[in-house]
Amino acid sequence: MNRNTFRLPAAVLLATGAVALLAAPPALATDGSGGQGTSGAVVLRTGLDVGLLNKTVHVPLKATLNEVSAPATAGKTALTVALDGVEQGQPVNVLTADAATAKATADENGARAEAALAHAKVHLPGLPALSLIEVEKVTSQAVCAAGAKPVATSNVLGTVTALGKKVTLTAGGPTEVEVPGVGLVSLRLSDTQTTSTTAAAAALRLKVSVNPLKLNVAQVDGEVVLAEAHCTSPTTAAKPAAKPDVKPQAAVATSGRADLAETGAGSATPWVAGGALLLLGVGACALVVTRRGRTS
Prior knowledge:
- By secondary structure, this protein is of the alpha+beta class.
- The chain contains 2 helices and 18 strands.
- It has helices at 2-23, 269-295; strands spanning 28-31, 38-52, 58-65, 68-69, 72-74, 78-81, 92-107, 110-122, 133-145, 151-162, 165-167, 175-179, 183-194, 198-210, 217-232, 237-240, 253-254, 257-258.
């Protein structure tokens, strides 16, 4: 009877320990250290189609000034482009400025980009003496800090002149400037966009359609963008956290082999469940044996 009385709590203890191991849940946590963000800036971007008067061809004028991606800084102040068949083959000074800067930075804490122009003039092929646009100062900035809402801002300071006409810009929509015999320019002020992870800003965006009829140029159509900046926030990733410190109440050895139960659901879960039921059965049998020993 003493021997049976000693085995009863041990069997019950083994069964209880197995059930406790089965009941332990898995855990997940979010790791805040993700990849770094991205950013970029450009002082001037042109996407123009130049139609030649005496030829049935179109010459693309795709040019950029101070285009950078993080980490980088650029400060060139002039952009000259040569187009075959335009202005007798002479270079076209697309942009000149007193100051033109673009800067982009990015790391795990956030991304930032900015672009600025001061006292700048933009020219088109076929209009060497007339500026498409003149600005005193334009700036754009995009900031994507980790864990914060992205922010995009742009500013146009001082006077703006388009095709020789002084322009009053409004934030409500595009401003159109038309010059008879020359063409039409549509200017959009402070174009900004943000999402939950991105920001983009352009100080001035121009839709261009001009008919110079000079220097072998019949038509110039397309877009010109001044002071553009964009960024993307750093990313985060989720990974499993450390497993809880669950200590087994007991271990069962059968024929020299130990069965170890792990927390969480997996391919071994049915075997662990079966082992728990077996241990519960052992405990019940031990209880019956003990009661019989007491009654005998």
